User: Fold this.
Amino acid sequence: MIELVRLAILFLLVAAAAWAQTPSAEHFERHVRPVLAQRCYACHGPDKQFSGLRVDSRAALFDGGKRGAVVVPGSPESSLLLRAIRHEPGLTPMPSGAGKLSAPEIAAIEQWIKQGAEWPASTAKPTEAGGLPAWYDRAAKTHWSFQPVKPATPPPGSAPHPVDRFLRAALAAKGLAPARPAEALTVIRRASFVLTGLPTTPAEIEAFTQDRAPGAFDRAVDRLIASPHFGEHWARHWMDVVRYGETRGYEWNYEIVGAWRYRDYLIRAFNADVPYNQFVREHIAGDLLEKPRLHPANGLNESVIATAFFRLGEAGHDDCIKFREISLDVVDNQIDTLGKAFQGLTLSCARCHDHKLDPIPTADYYGLFGVLNSSRAQTHTIDAPTAIPAELAARKRAVRNELAGAWTAQIASLELRSSTGKTSFDHPLFPWLAMRPTDTAVFAATWRALAARYREESQERAQFNREHFTPYLDWSAWSQDGLGLRNAAGVARAGDVAIATEGAQALTAILPAGLHTNLYTDRWNGALRSPLLPKTHKYLSVRLMGGRLASCRTVLDNCAIGDGYRVLENDSPRWHRLDTYSREKLPAFAEIVTKRDNPRIPDRPRQIKATEAEIAAPGSYFGATSAVLHDKPESPREELGHLARLFEGETPTSLEELIQRYRAVLRNAIAAWAAGRATDDDVRWLDAALRAGLLENSVGPALAAYRELEARLPEPRTIDGMGDAGAGFDTPILRAGDPHAPGEVTPRHFLSRIGNHAPALNSPGSGRRELAESIADPANPLTARLMVNRVWHHVFGRGLVPTVDNFGREGERPSHPQLLDYLATRFVQEGWSVKKLARLLATSEAFRQSSEGPAPEADPANALLHHYPARRLAAESIRDSMLATSGALNRTLHGPSIAPPRNEPQAYRRLFAGPLDGQGRRSLYTQVTRMEGSRFLEIFDYPNPMAARGARDITNVPAQALAMMNDPFVHEQARVWAERLAAQGDAQQPEARVDAMFRAALGRPATAAERARFAGLAAELASLHRAPVNSAAVWKDVAHALFNLKEFLYLR
Amino acid sequence: MTITRRRALQLASNGFGWLAASSILQGATHHAAKAKRVVFFFMPGGVSHMESFDPKPKLTELDGKPAKLDNYVAGPNRKWLRPLWEFKQHGQCGAPVSALFPNIARHIDDLAIIRSMKSEFPLHARGNVFLHTGKNIGGFPSLGSWITYGLGTLNANLPGYVLLRDAHIPPGGIENFSNGFLPATHQATHIRDEGAPVDHIKPLDTDARIQRAKLDALLQQDRHLLASSGGGHGAIESAIANYEMAYKMQSLVPDVLDLAKETESTKRMYGLDSADKPKRLYGLQCLRARRLLEAGVRFVEVTCPNLVGQNGTWDQHDHLTRDHEHNAAVTDQAIAALMTDLKQRGMFDDTLILWAAEFGRTPDTGNGDGRDHHPFCFSLWLAGGGVKGGVTHGETDELGDQVVRDPVTIHDLHATMLHLLGLNHEHLTYRYGGREQRLTDVYGNIVRTVVA
Assistant:
């Protein structure tokens, strides 16, 4: 103890000396750590600790082994470590059974101890190529899950079902036998929960018990698998694996755009039995598939939705330059989830050092990091490719024609007017305003002076723009998403108009040539994203217009909800300057988006001026005309060419002549516009005239017809997912995970030691497409095994490999390796069909055996399945069962989530309160909010969505009993059930009612003793309530008691 | 040996009490403990260190002059801001405390102040989660969870880790108080200051006999199921036992929270007579804290009443004068009262007390009456079991910007607290995600100066 204290004090001194990276730290890293690692770790490292000694960390070294501390800083002579490697007498010479260290190596360690044995923290660095631990190759060649799947045939035996043959052979080897078959009603209830998460319906029990032909149970399984509730239940299983959440946690708990659409995608995918390899592809690269899978009815792009998988984790909103860890942690969470979900590997252990247990070099981590860093966190529009509605286009043309007629009629008598004083040439009325007070006597002279000023300024502006700006790529090089931009829907010619979808005005704007999301309707969305910005210039300026919470920003390092976007509030084009972050090596792109494509909206309080109603309302729009790069902070100046037509020709000699000139200019512009050959210069005139109120802009019959149709357009559907744009790039290894210590650049690749061996992921974009194939490859030794095991886990309560998310060396080994490989082979052969697999398992005799009987000593954990494992239902099934039993279950599929009930909603953190019964919907429709989730579900081990979790804890604590006894939801459902029973009339005798309730709650009739027990309870309750025995109050309490039965809460 | 037993119990989450699994470990410390329970006064948002326990007269001199700090908020408009409250020396040790905390100052000779705390991020969510779990991202067990996991319970009928809170969850959310990968029994049980204090503890039945009648019938039915099954249903057996425990807890927990047995003078000492509602509620939570500690709860944490839309009670980027003043008024009296109360009951010497925020505040300001987040140095204090009173550890520069002597990290703080509780932070481990996880990760040095 005193020794320890002394050492601890010593540490403090050493540590204090080591705050800065010192020469001795460098000495340690170059000359000492490598020697320890290569020569000592094998026996005194993470895997083995001979004599209880580890030498792979400061703490371990100084704690020492059985003989105490082996290093005494500053005192080489009393350091056992040094004496042992010097082969001094009385000590086992080290390294044991291997060659002595070289003299320079020993000297280096001696020097290190003499200098105080500094062990710098957090400099654990990845090994460079070639320096990987020797056991990596061994592990890659020998660890079971890294070897190819070996097709297996069921062992001989009398059981007809292949799964039973494997299981029975293993049982027989231990002298064990399976349990007797369980009762038919127990098994059908079991099958119903396992396959659909819901209790058996009376109809299903009826169908099952009436079916006397052989194979009745298999047919019941088929019905359950065909039920749409199958997809719901298996979607929820998968949501655990992908740490599904609908808000981002952290400080402000931003909502994840459209997360619930991913949940619906899962339901559809499991119900449609989408092949698992396709499912994998969609998750990893659904946006890059040559043939995306479209929803058969509504054309939704299913494949793209799946990429939301990457975006469901926690994320912070802060500045990603100041806090690099924010984006690194997001990617780390993506790698962690990807690794666990699809490969059963803890890839993110290799973030700071080579993986200690599995052959995963840090280079593999950063090979994958490059793939994800090259991908783009973006909000996708998932609607079917939408044609421009012809009728809407026609009605829009009618509006335009109506206006063209009105304007042409107006022009002869047009009066100039202006509500505000214009003080610069930026407004076409400025020359008129400037000349208005001028005497006719000096009119011409004054005009000539003004014209000279105009020409000077016009040239100045043009010259400034020529000198300081480099045109950036044209729009075709930008990615264009959203209904308003896709399929060239947003390509506007000069003079196209944007119609106001509400209010007294007809037009929002007369548009310059460019891309405009609102060419047909404000309701359509748009997202215009640049390629990765060049680092050659400090700024990108984009000439933009827009409103209703459209915005522009630079996204740096995929910081999707990072600080900084500018809301567009201008209906005439204006230059907006964006930073390219040229000083940072980090990737950046510019993004101009409508409201639903901005993952920061709804924003936290005091960030934007908008009410919840404005945020919720449909409609948002922007337009973009051009983009330039530059270094000086000033954006381009608006050029003045359009005014030339005013200053050209004969000098006007009076204000009246000038007004005539204006009329002529406008008449020409209107004529050009009406004829469909307007130029941008015409547009500037017309738009200015419109805004000055010179031209008619009010609602006519054509506009009403347009608006009537427009209001019926569906809103676009968006979801946060992953995209790709342009060439991918490789990233450096970060030493010890430190963003400020970049090392060697690693080419993008997948696992170099496991499976297919480092498939390069480099063409032509991020590499996600190839990554998806590498994982979906039938030759990948992990993919099929992992999924088969997940399904087994859910059917039998325990995986053949119990560590369902870890197939690495730290995970457990399979209890039935041949069975696992048999199933994996069959799974692939049968088209990666989850339904066929689930059916295969559920129709085995093992699934139908009893859960009862003592646990034999030969297998106390029931790894060999000598009986079916009884277990508590999952949180969702408990809640859903109460709804189903009470009759309140709303079996609607899909749709936006429902906030969980809360006593303390916190709207500013997007924690809203929902109805107590969640509208009767199944629990998977309860919104999954980070920061604070559903309290009822969490009591029953509903997972906290921070990391992949394919197997939930199953705890058994009094808090669960308290919830079932006292939660208002439980009481409410008991009441609903009782009222429904009461509505069936008073005639029913208590015992008959008990029987009916048993059938509803437990899927079986009540025995005579049970009928008597609960009828007795009813009688007792009647006296306590001082109410007739048939009153709803009495039966509410009986119902409540039944909800609390272990038979109700447990699967047997 | 200890580790083996702990490992064996990791999976045994069936329980008869809140902490059944680990309760067997009671007394299984690594070395003699100086404290056996903890109360943590969490000050979310970040208390200004130069206006609490680390006086900086230099700032008074520089007040209003352009500030030139090289940190994440650096900019042309930053100005030094003088400490807005006076400091006075207190007690025999003569340690200075600002006028914000006159009551805590009365206990100064029992406090060990650390002025050289360092955290890693000037961000609330990360700072809070780091202070609680030693990690700056979610998913890891909180200090209170580690301690109840390590020490087990003193009263199996009560939760081991209790959080006394208001309606608002601080940044980082539930992750701050989560059991992470430890068994669920180690998560914080939340006791709210208004409304029903604990979920599900109050029977909804109008008559206690109704609940008992239901329980009798259903447990009879359950036992019949169990008896007829012939084994294999151990989980059901535990669940039945949990119902009996839950039934008892319905009266036990309210009894612990019931203030009827407290004298009026005790209530006044905690500020329960205050006209200020937040102060009243905070006093209530502190008095409950004492009762919970007395009843055998291992780790009690008290958060501060928050202001809607703010990122933590003490997060005064503006209105520093008004809101720090108010927050101090809300908390100071009740914290001091709890310390006095523990002393009077002979519990002070084996109760470890921590007062801490996730970080301090900047010595400069961007708007005149506010300070920003400052993780580069800040102050906290420990007191009670095993803590050397009257000590000030560490030193910051004259501006209160950086630590210049004896830096202490959050890991060091955790290591020290575990040490006082008889736990070796390097040996308190749990196997998860492929490695032996520790509260202190691979770091942590015990701060010997503050150990008595």
